[in-house]
Amino acid sequence: MGKENPSETVPPQPINICTIMYTSGTSGDPKGVVLTHDNMAMFLSGLDLFLEQFDDKMTVNDVYLSFLPLAHILDRVIEEYFFHKGASVGFFHGNVKEISDDLMELKPTFFAGVPRVFDRIQKAIEDLIPRRRKIFHLLYKYKLFWMNRGYKHKHASPLADLLAFRKVKNKLGGRVRLMVCGAAPWSEEVEEFLRVTCCCFVLQGYGLTETCGLSTVCYPDEMSMLGAVGAPSVYTEMRLEEVPEMGYHPLADPPRGEICLRGKTLFSEYYKNPELTTESIRDGWFHSGDIGEMLPNGTIKIIDRKKNLIKLSQGEYVALEYLEKVYSITPIVEDIWVYGDSFKSMLVAVVVPNEDNTKKWAAQNGCKGTFTDFCSLKEFRNYVLSELTVAAERNKLRGFEHVKGVVIEPQTFELIPSLMTPTMKKRRDKMLKHYQAEIDDLYNTLAKGKC
């Protein structure tokens, strides 16, 4: 090496290792996913081909705000693509709760995040809604009406954008053109709200570390894809496989099953774990563990998670992540972890209440004290449980999917060490260990009929 010892450069071969990325470890130990140079090159090439079909082109003037962990596959491949196109990447200063300061400083044209981040953006936007809320919601419905009829977001209602929604875009830095959500299922209500109010393209994608981060992607301004994660991306093949224990079949109506993937961006192996590699890749198809539904327009909607499926004592299967998605829409809920024991017949949950709505409840019920004080009240716990029951009935959940008891946690899960991954996914084993005593007490109380 060096001037005195010159050596020829040896460019990597397609099959050589480009990177080993470790999964977040939500259901156990993180796994080392081996991605080759061929995987990464095919991802970049496929994204180039996908973006060619749209009028809005990416340029060297685009700026990406990176605030996901650098070890997250979504952030990694976006940065790779921006460098590939000669565009810019800026990094947040380290506190996600203060990301608004970074938005105003960097003025990004694009950023990607997980549902938890976009939920916070929605709540921040709602705080901007002027006193004349009726006018805001009329403008919202008017713009949504025309977007649902095929108009692009920037042509659906320039008047509504001028009167109400430009303030939202200004709070995002004023230049944002595209926001992408990935890594976990996203509420349709939040997605629709951001599509209407942010004056930019808002869409979902789906992928895993094992597929180089992108397996399906939605099309901009396609309201028919609301709630879906899109169609298979370039160089990706997808099929649904039957999951008889959950009642899912790809030939049923609608077609449902475990999402299986193969293609040029599929990883080569789990690092030093041939058994798991063989278990996950069968006949060339990677079994994702996610349950998808094929919609009439050919797109995929994530509806369940095979890996977080539990069986209650009466023999009924329950998908915990799906239930958390349903219950989290409840206004009083900031975050929720649903738990079920295979030796029990009922579900319970740990709920982090929304602080503002908790204080409103306290004022309406004549309660005085701090947020933590309110969380300790039996009356408040009963109120939270009743709101979850309303959400369950509204979404037509089956009786055994109703939460029967709750533990109220005043701290957000992110503030409690080891409960969340860097990408804000729940570590279910750590959650159980942390709340084991409260869960046991709750089940004992339920067994005695006192809750």
Structure in words:
The model has no long low-confidence stretch (mean pLDDT 89). With 451 residues, this protein is an alpha/beta fold. The termini are far apart. Helix content is 35%, strand content 22%. It folds into two domains: 301 residues, Rossmann fold (3-Layer(aba) Sandwich), CATH 3.40.50.12780; 136 residues, ANL, C-terminal domain (GMP Synthetase, Chain A, domain 3), CATH 3.30.300. The strands form five sheets. Strands 4-3-5-6-7-8-9 form a seven-stranded mixed β-sheet, with helices on both faces. Strands 10, 11, 13, 14 and 15 form a five-stranded antiparallel β-sheet that branches. The longest helix has 20 residues. The chain contains 14 helices and 20 strands.
| CATH topology call of the largest domain | Rossmann fold
Helix content: 25-40%
Report the mean per-residue pLDDT as an integer.
89
The main β sheet shows up as: 7 strands, mixed
Number of helices: 14
How big a fraction of the residues is strand?
15-25%
- The first-to-last residue Cα distance is 72 Å
Low-confidence stretches: none
Name of the CATH class of the largest domain = Alpha Beta
Fourth CATH level, the homologous superfamily of the largest domain: ANL, N-terminal domain
Radius of gyration: 23 Å
If strands are numbered along the chain, what order do they take across the biggest sheet? 4-3-5-6-7-8-9
The structural class is alpha/beta
**Morphology:** globular
InterPro entries: AMP-binding_CS, AMP-dep_synth/lig_dom, ANL_N_sf
Pfam family, one: AMP-binding
GO molecular function: long-chain fatty acid-CoA ligase activity
Protein name: AMP-dependent synthetase/ligase domain-containing protein
